Amino acid sequence: MQVTETLNEGLKRKLSVVIPAQDLSARLDARLEEMKGTANIKGFRPGKVPKSHLKKVYGRSAMSEVLSDAINSTVTATLDERSEKAAVQPKVDLPDDQDTINKVLDGDADLNFEVSYEVLPPVTLMDFSTLKVDRPVVDIEESEVDAEVNRVFAQQRGFEDKGDDAVVEDGDRLGLTFKGTIDGEAFAGGSSDHAHLTVGAGEFIPGFEEQLVGMKKGETKTIKVTFPEDYAQDDLAGKEADFEVSILHVDAPKDGELDDEFAKSIGLENVEGLRTAVKDQMRNALDSMSRQALKRQVLDQLDDGHKFDVPGDLVDAEFNTIWQRVVHEVEHHGRSFEDEGTTEEAAREQYRTIAERRVRLGLVVAEIGNVNKVEVTEEEHQQALMAEVRRFPGQEQQVFDYYRKNPQALAGLRAPVFENKVVDYVVELADKTDKKMTRAELSKIIQDDESEVPEEHHH
Question: Superfamily for 2-118?
């Protein structure tokens, strides 16, 4: 076997490979020897077919298999010898001249082919103790616990229809349609054909719910509101908007008291137990958001601290995955790139940069995990699967079956767990400062993080 490097530019490699005819003949003989024991040919007893006859009957098809195996094993062995890892499956170019191929298949010519691939770049890790991260600290106010307890009470107590003459009061649960405009122009996420809200629960932007009080079922009116300055969507923050609202139905809370009896009815000991459970849930949600904010800071600094070329093939694959979702989101909402205040070209460029960042960070995270022996245990893998299953109430069995039948999707659940463990490892070494902030400020950090790429939709 003869290997000649014909291209070595950045991460790109091209090799010219020659496998001599006698090597292929030896491989073919070995293959025919294997077949001899199992071949079933009329007029011969099993295992007694002469090799020359086998070659006449099966030579061509056996040679095709031999070529395929020879190419794959040669490529693998060559990369091992060169201590290179291909970013994606190397591309093999065979001669396109049929006469040459026929000669090779007949064992009369050497096999010449070219292999093109990109190598994974070497990653030199930065010193993690130079990283500086702010650890969000959010206090839970008693008033927030009160509001959440009242929301649980209202939700669990249930609602009943107030009838056709209903007038909206504080605490009622409404079905409504709304169309929002800013300076006469509709905006993304500003309309719904059937939304639900509980008046006074603060689920919509400030000032929206209060203006619904006194409206009647079937009534339509225009409500004027101003988006808060710290609103998660920067393009809406501080803007004045008009919402044309129609009330579809009005449900009032059923009678009942927020007392120990109510707490028992939802499986808790007393009202104090309910407050504790609510507070724990709020703390868990804040801890999870806090970890997400930490992760964002770590990934941003890892991105800044590692600058190297990344394989174009990997970037293309990542970009295509993102772009499919972007196009799906835009079309799904019946919008265009111009509606989103951009052009397709600018959006492509933006998401290509994101794809490149993701690939680079993926290689950095893999290297950190590799060097520091970070591993995902079988138990953690199972926990990730159960968490995914719980995301689809009522469809648990289908989701479970989906992962059982798709080993690749199941393996994919390891990646986020691995990434989180690597981030935890880096955070331990980083210089940490506690930073007090409000829940709204923490939410905004998380929202900004999530607005980068549309959510991936499984199943």
Answer: Trigger factor ribosome-binding domain (3.30.70.1050)
